[in-house]
Automatic annotation (TrEMBL):
It catalyses: oxidized coenzyme F420-(gamma-L-Glu)(n) + a quinol + H(+) = reduced coenzyme F420-(gamma-L-Glu)(n) + a quinone. Belongs to the F420H(2)-dependent quinone reductase family. This is Deazaflavin-dependent oxidoreductase (Nitroreductase family). NCBIfam families: hi_GC_TIGR00026. Coiled coil: none annotated. It comes from Kutzneria buriramensis. Pfam families: F420H2_quin_red. GO terms for molecular function: coenzyme F420 binding; oxidoreductase activity. InterPro entries: F420H2_quin_Rdtase (IPR004378), Split_barrel_FMN-bd (IPR012349). One of its GO terms (cellular component) is plasma membrane.
């Protein structure tokens, strides 16, 4: 198991044990757990993700810290958009929808406007447009 997988596992355990709150380097972060299906493996995976509420929408950003590549969870959501979201208060089924055009621009501005480091990530990512994904409750 990789160091990242170990870290994620500990975050997931702490999140579930403490009603959505975690400590350590993620203390105070607004997280959700997204359970999704691996695009290549078909395995059920759970990933802790920072999320943003824009109006009534729950949004995650596939920034991958500005890498030139999308994070693997993003590929999984595109291939299999039916997910389960845990927000610390409830667990619900959702559909992951990649925002496009004007919707993406609106969501990106709302998020990057309050968290400028996302603009730095976009610059670092080069030609890769960082995806914005809405987790729509079904």
């Amino acid at each position: 198991m990789s160091e990242q997988q170990d870290f994620n596992r500990s975050v997931i355990e702490e999140f579930r044990a403490n009603g959505g709150r975690v400590g350590g380097p993620l203390a105070g972060a607004e997280l959700v757990l997204v359970t999704h299906t691996g695009a290549r493996t078909g395995r059920t995976l759970t990933t802790p993700l920072g999320h943003f509420r824009v109006g009534d929408e729950v949004v995650v950003v596939a920034a991958n810290r500005g890498s030139a590549r999308h994070p693997s969870w993003y590929h999984n959501l595109v291939a299999n958009p039916s997910v389960t979201v845990e927000d610390g208060e409830s667990t619900y089924a959702a559909t992951a929808v990649v925002a496009q055009g004007a919707e993406r621009a609106r969501l990106w501005e709302a998020i990057a406007g309050s968290r400028p480091f996302f603009r730095d990530f976009q610059e670092k990512a080069g030609a890769r447009e960082i995806p914005v994904v809405v987790l729509r409750r079904t």
